[in-house]
């Protein structure tokens, strides 16, 4: 993936974006994304799984890297962008199950996957509770959810969230407490949360018994 591809993805997250006037921000985003993917793969290597669903898989970059280290793993992914799914299908071939759909309604049976991963997407969900409920449904008993997303320190996080709320933008950057409470509410137990380079976080949560 080249710099302009990365910046196209940044534009979809942050709204207007000028390649010419904000080249530094694009480079920083690229570096953060590489760090995020490397950190996610490190967590994946530490878990025992034979099937994975990437919610918000984009062009299939993460699934391709999973396939590279173990071709026996069953791959599945979804994204709302038909163009990105088309690229992902070319990249991963017939062995992957890639679907254009909404993250709030996952078209897989209950208990289909050992592991669900969500990178660069959770902060954009308008109804995260619906997404978590569906993620839990398709994860096997004692299976895992890994989320990787961007993070800001206090008070920048609150200012960012307030500004986006005023603009009616659903993007929200979560604190550790906020994401932990949300996971617990929808049947997950947080087992690991790590802040990396003060810019991204990685969490691992295990499917448990819902307290609802």
Describe the structure.
With 212 residues, this protein is an alpha/beta fold. Helices cover 41% and strands 25% of the residues. The protein has a seven-stranded mixed beta sheet, with helices on both faces. α1 packs across α2 (23-45). The chain is globular and about 45 Å long. Residues 1-21 have low confidence and may be disordered.
Order of helices and strands: HHEHEHEEHEHHEE
Largest sheet: 7 strands, mixed
Principal-axes shape call: globular
The number of distinct β-strands equals 7
Structural class: alpha/beta
Spans where pLDDT lies below 50 across 5 or more residues: 1-21
Distance between the termini: 42 Å
Which band does the percent of strand residues land in?
15-25%
Q: What is the share of helical residues?
A: 40-55%
Which key features would you list for this structure?
single chain; seven-stranded mixed β-sheet; alpha/beta; 7 helices; disordered N terminus; globular; 212 residues
């Amino acid at each position: 993936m080249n710099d302009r591809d990365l910046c196209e993805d940044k534009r979809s997250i942050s709204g207007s974006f000028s390649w010419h006037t904000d080249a530094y921000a694009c480079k920083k985003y690229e570096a953060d994304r590489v760090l995020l993917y490397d950190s996610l793969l490190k967590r994946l290597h530490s878990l025992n799984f034979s099937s994975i669903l990437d919610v918000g898989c984009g062009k299939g970059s993460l699934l391709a890297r999973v396939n590279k280290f173990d071709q026996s793993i069953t791959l599945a992914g979804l994204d709302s962008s038909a163009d990105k799914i088309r690229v992902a299908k070319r990249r991963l071939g017939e062995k992957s199950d890639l679907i254009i759909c909404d993250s709030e309604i996952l078209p897989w049976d209950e208990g289909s996957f050992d592991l669900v991963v969500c990178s660069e997407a959770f902060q954009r969900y308008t109804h995260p509770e619906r997404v978590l409920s569906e993620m839990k449904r398709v994860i096997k008993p004692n299976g895992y959810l890994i989320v990787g997303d961007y993070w800001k320190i206090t008070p920048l996080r609150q200012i960012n969230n307030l500004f986006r709320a005023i603009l009616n933008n659903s993007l929200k950057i979560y604190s550790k407490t906020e994401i932990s409470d949300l996971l617990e509410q929808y049947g997950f137990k947080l087992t690991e949360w790590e802040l990396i380079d003060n810019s991204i976080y990685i969490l691992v949560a295990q499917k448990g018994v819902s307290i609802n």
